[in-house]
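FAQ: What does a ligand-bound record look like?

Like this one, built around magnesium ion:
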Amino acid sequence: MTKAELVTEIDAIPVTYREPTDHDRFRSVCLVRIGTADGTVGWGECCTYFPEASRAAVNLVEAFAELIIGKSALHIETHWHEMKAHSWWYGTGAGITSMAISGIDIALWDLKGKLLGMRVLDLLGGPVRDKLPAIACLHGTNPSIEVMAEEIAGHTATGLHGAKVGFGKRGEANLGFDEDRDLEFVEKVQAAMGPDKKLMIDLGVKNHWDVATAIRRARAFEDRGVAWLEEPLGHDEPAGYRTLRAATAIRIAYGEREWNARGVQRILETGTVDVVGLDPGRVEGITGFKRAADLCALARRQANAHNFSTAIVGAASQALSFACPACYLLELQPVYGPAQADLVDRPIWHDSGFVRAPEGPGLGITINEELVESARI
Ligand SMILES: [Mg+2]
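The answer part, i.e. the structure of the complex:
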């Protein structure tokens, strides 16, 4: 072991920012910065969303730091297992523990790549494809269906292959409640985007459908060619999902609220999920995402990065989506937001609807540390 690879510092930095895609709401994450003796630095992110969760993640990251400081930054698997073993009593495999492990794990992968002069993508085994189709990730917020249809079509006109639209979000869109209005929305968005574009619908926590409603709604969306229906029954409704799956052929998406590969295995075993959402800032990092996505590939199910926080999770999602055979596309936020566009020197973007593999050592990004300091809570 050389001195250069020894971890000397781990900082947890809770930050807050406005998210224009989510009606300008304040969101929070806990960033993680890990440094080694030779001054190399890696960055990670705990996808906490709420300030109280970011503050709680700080405490856990600082406790995990004691397990890692003085040890090799290259031994990611060792540290991942040690963090899980250490936290057994207070919640290994769930909640803020999983987020804290995620932030450290992502930072260690970035750091390892930078120390070795290799891309995280190469450390993961290399790309399994040379480009990924990108779709727009959007929330419905405007009261006018016509205005929303025009806005969404404006984004897909840049080449993006389609749009995933969040229903039941902040703002006045009021989607996910009235069936006729929702179908009018689907038809008008599809007409505005044109026939080559895909529409995905993602139900929010404000939309609470019972099983019979979900079946009726899913069939109506299926008839209109909606590409997938996300969380129509939330994240933990195995019996309801079995009934829904038997009644419709629409692709059903959920999983982004799972905490680790074991949780993903559990939902795969129900046979009711076609597109499994995975967030590297929540599902025990890059290490946890890879494990979970490999399970999805074995089960012949699609994995889909939940890329909806900062550009650090974005860069991790990009590397993972190129490395994992179960990932077929990548969601991007086309609406300008500082957490994606200004935090790093090279935010992910698309060229005629396709994202290319990341370049540069580690996650291939340099963090705007001034912006981080200005966002600190
Ligand atoms: Mg979702």
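Follow-up question: can I read anything off the structure? Yes, for example: The longest helix spans residues 95-116.
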